């Protein structure tokens, strides 16, 4: 299968790295283009051996699957640059946060099969948490194909398209929340006298172990948390501080805000297109 990436940023790289690492496609089958940063393309070529192209027609020609991997704000220009070279036989896979498959179809101004996805950067090591949804013209077999691609680089579940906003707020942005926690725990460990290397090792292994416990035991997070928390002990004191600082509510608002932002980004582009159509 030949895959073209329009956009060569962190998400494109994470997917490319994952696909190659898992042997889903050969480096010769991947073509990458971006807006103008030739140095970035060269670095992807050096690192992964993929084909890089500035010419947009050449980039999409012959691809079975075209990944849209530019920022949502660049979707209009990015699609404009390739739309006259894309054919109905090619399957479009969007990773753009917030942008609906209808808007993508409108931007191409032709009846294309579009699958919308929300992976995360852990795709780079085969551990993405991805959800996908199909646009009105995509088929069940398109969905199955894209699910098999993303399943090769982590978990991939199928959702209704509207749920992708919440997915973005939870697992698309999610790695950043966990890194935020890691940063905070490392900083706190230093303040308590541990040295940087020890703090980093202990924090990352603690996150890794806890994630495995969540997946490999049949226990809920709450049960696992209680098992760590001895009455009158250290964890109880620590958790009581998190409760005092309303960390749980902070997460509720964090995910709500990110979900709302996904909807807004979709609406901003849809509104722009409506304005252009009415002028
Ligand atoms: N970074 C993340 O963790 C995740 C990002 N996403 C989505 O992935 C998409 C890309 O995000 P990042 O990789 O983080 O962005 P990025 O800023 O790292 O990369 C964007 C890429 O798009 C290219 N680009 C911009 N305008 C273009 C145009 N007109 N034609 C061709 N290429 C163009 C840029 O040159 C750059 O290579 C976004 O839509 C984002 O919503 C989805 C899930 C997770
Ligand atoms: O922050 C963003 O908008 C993108 C979407 C999910 C992760 N990064």
TrEMBL record:
The keyword Nucleotide-binding does not apply. Signal peptide: none annotated. The keyword Oxidoreductase applies. It is found in: Cytoplasm. It comes from the Bacteria. Pathway: Amino-acid biosynthesis; L-proline biosynthesis; L-proline from L-glutamate 5-semialdehyde: step 1/1. Pfam families: F420_oxidored, P5CR_dimer. InterPro entries: 6-PGluconate_DH-like_C_sf (IPR008927), NAD(P)-bd_dom_sf (IPR036291), P5C_Rdtase_cat_N (IPR028939), P5CR-like_CS (IPR053790), P5CR_dimer (IPR029036), Pyrroline-COOH_reductase (IPR000304). Its EC number is 1.5.1.2. It catalyses: L-proline + NAD(+) = (S)-1-pyrroline-5-carboxylate + NADH + 2 H(+); L-proline + NADP(+) = (S)-1-pyrroline-5-carboxylate + NADPH + 2 H(+). Keywords: Amino-acid biosynthesis, Cytoplasm, NADP, Oxidoreductase, Proline biosynthesis. Residues 161-265 form the Pyrroline-5-carboxylate reductase dimerisation domain. Its main location: cytoplasm. Residues 2-98 form the Pyrroline-5-carboxylate reductase catalytic N-terminal domain. Catalyzes the reduction of 1-pyrroline-5-carboxylate (PCA) to L-proline. Belongs to the pyrroline-5-carboxylate reductase family. This is Pyrroline-5-carboxylate reductase. It comes from Sutcliffiella horikoshii.
């Amino acid at each position: 299968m030949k895959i073209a990436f329009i956009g060569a940023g962190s998400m494109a790289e994470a997917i490319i790295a994952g696909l190659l690492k898992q042997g889903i496609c050969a480096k010769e089958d991947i073509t990458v283009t971006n807006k103008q940063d030739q140095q970035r393309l060269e670095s992807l070529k050096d690192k992964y051996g993929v084909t890089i192209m500035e010419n947009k027609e050449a980039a999409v020609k012959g691809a079975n699957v075209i990944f849209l991997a530019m920022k949502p704000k660049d979707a209009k220009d990015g699609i404009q640059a390739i739309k006259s070279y894309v054919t109905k036989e090619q399957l479009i896979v969007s990773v753009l946060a917030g942008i609906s498959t209808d808007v993508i179809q409108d931007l191409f101004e032709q009846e294309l099969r579009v699958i919308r996805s929300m992976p995360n950067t852990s795709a780079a090591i085969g551990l993405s948490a991805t959800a996908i949804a199909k646009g009105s013209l995509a088929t069940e077999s398109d969905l199955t194909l894209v699910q098999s691609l993303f399943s090769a680089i982590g978990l991939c579940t199928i959702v209704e398209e509207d749920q992708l906003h919440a997915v973005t707020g939870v697992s698309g942005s999610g790695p950043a929340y966990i890194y935020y926690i890691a940063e905070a725990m490392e900083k706190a460990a230093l303040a308590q006298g541990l040295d940087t290397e020890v703090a980093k090792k202990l924090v990352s292994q603690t996150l890794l172990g806890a994630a495995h416990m969540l997946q490999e035991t049949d226990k809920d997070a709450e049960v696992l948390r209680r098992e760590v928390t001895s009455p009158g002990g250290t964890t109880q004191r620590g958790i009581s501080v998190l409760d005092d600082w309303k960390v749980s509510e902070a997460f509720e608002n964090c995910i709500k805000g990110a979900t709302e932002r996904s909807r807004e980004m979709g609406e901003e582009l849809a509104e722009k297109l409506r304005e252009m159509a009415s002028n």
